[in-house]
Design brief:
Length: 464
């Protein structure tokens, strides 16, 4: 979903790039079920006859559409559900407009679209609401807003705009399994496409983006053929052994995946896969992440789509092939694309530059899962609203794996980091509700550090 932040220092939010229909109505308009999963759980706990839901950053409307379908398909639902969508100024989606019209026509309640910024929620909303939902919001607040300060301010604002007992349903990319993002690890890169990407992406990210990797030990050390080389001098034909913070390697891994998706959707590779819907889930072995990939050939003859066509079978108006084969052809095409961008080819450079503007400056990993949960609880307690935000059951914190991407990463990287999503349902717990506080503490204790739990106890002691 699109960011809801105000440009401060650092890179400006790419409003034009993220408003493009090819991104907002297609690339960012997917995973509706996953985006709504925690919202549906929150609705099941809400006793209000006509609850009010606020979604920050509705994108192309995938979440709203899945929500409407879910409410239509069950009798166990609120009498009405009024929805307020808050989108960043200047971001417009035709797909979202159609979904809003459909929701209002279905008699489920009202749905309105408002332009605004996340840090201004207190002035946008006239009354506290039952549920707030957001997807991929915090990393954009960090990347384009005011860094950690912006995140903390948002955490302190949320309990004030939620009713006591209300919920915040949040979804984002999965963080690292480490105590801190600065934990030093060593990663090995052997694939030419990944080596090219590390050489091109990492220097511009470290030098031109907002990120937390500024400690003296954070700058990566690259070794090739037993020699230390600069990031920009990596030879993509030779294995590189790189030592640095685990969070930075998570950034490299995640950004490669987003660039691969962007290269697909650009059409320049000569083929575009069906990533979503029924054709996007043609599994050979779902648990292993092995599937058949359906794709359409484009008019681009710049690379070699004919070779992929010969390794595929016709399927209606498109083609289908084994996912592992499709990944091999994709990476071969990306090697050519990255090389052309470095050489100044207009088409390759355009795709690379557009992706850098849209996503290449974002820091996806800003807190580990334990830090995220602890900071929400601590900052909300410090807001002095008489409530604290925390998950209350084990089902309120889940980290689903993206099996297809995990399969791919394990084939390309000798020590791939886990890939997936993290979904958290926070409850705005009144500090007078000792039973709920106790339940929340039991959920947080194994996930958060002892130091974080001590800070939380101290913050709560100031409010109770």
């Amino acid at each position: 979903m699109t960011a809801q932040i105000e440009t401060a220092v650092g890179n400006a939010f790419a409003t034009a790039a993220k408003s493009d229909a090819g991104y907002l109505d297609e690339a960012a308009n997917s995973h509706g079920r996953e985006k709504v999963q925690m919202v549906l759980n929150a609705l099941a706990r809400t006793t209000t006859d006509a609850p009010h839901l606020v979604e920050i950053g509705p994108g192309g409307g995938a979440a709203l559409q899945y929500l409407a379908d879910s409410l239509t398909g069950t009798a166990d639902r609120p009498g009405t559900l009024d929805v307020t969508l808050i989108e960043a100024p200047g971001v417009v989606s035709q797909a979202l407009a159609r979904v809003i019209d459909g929701y209002n026509a279905a008699g489920l309640g009202t749905c309105t679209l408002t332009s605004g910024l996340a840090q201004n929620l207190g002035s946008i909303l006239e009354h506290p609401v039952d549920i707030v939902a957001a997807s991929a919001l915090i990393h954009e607040v960090y990347s384009y807003g005011s860094g950690y300060r912006g995140i903390h301010e948002m955490m302190q604002t949320l309990p004030a705009i939620l009713k006591p007992g209300g919920h915040f349903a949040y979804r984002d990319v999965r963080t690292v399994d480490a105590a801190t993002l600065h934990e030093t690890v060593t990663q090995t890169y052997t694939h030419r496409g990944w080596l090219q990407f590390v050489r091109m992406f990492t220097p511009q990210y470290l030098n031109g983006s907002r990120h937390p990797y500024h400690r003296s030990s954070d700058y990566p050390t690259v070794r090739q053929d037993s020699r230390i080389v600069a990031l920009e001098d990596i030879d993509p034909r030779t294995t590189a052994v790189i030592t640095g913070p685990i969070g930075l390697f998570r950034e490299i891994q995640r950004h490669y995946i987003t660039f691969r998706d962007y290269a697909w959707r650009s059409g320049l590779l000569g083929f575009v896969p069906h990533l979503d819907g029924q054709l996007g889930a043609d599994w050979i072995d779902a648990e292993a992440g092995h599937k058949r990939v359906h794709f359409t050939l484009t008019e681009s003859e710049w690379l070699f789509p004919a070779l992929l066509k010969n390794a595929s079978e016709p399927y209606g108006d498109h083609y289908v092939t084994d996912g592992d084969i499709f990944d091999e052809y994709t990476d071969a095409a990306i090697i050519e694309l990255l090389a052309s961008a470095e050489d100044g080819d207009e088409r390759g450079a355009a795709v690379w530059g557009e992706w850098i503007e849209r996503e290449g400056h974002e820091t996806y990993i800003y807190l580990t899962l334990g830090e995220l949960l602890a900071e929400f609880a601590i900052r909300s307690a410090e807001a002095n609203t008489g409530t604290v935000m925390m998950p209350l059951t084990s089902d309120d914190v889940i980290t689903p794996e993206r099996a297809y991407y995990t399969r791919y990463l394990r084939k390309r990287l000798p020590n791939a980091l886990p890939d997936g999503k993290q979904l958290v349902l926070f409850t705005n717990v009144p500090t007078s509700d000792t039973e709920a506080l106790r339940a929340g503490m039991e959920i947080l204790r194994p996930l958060c550090s002892r130091e974080a739990m001590a800070r939380l106890h101290s913050a709560l002691a100031q409010t109770i």
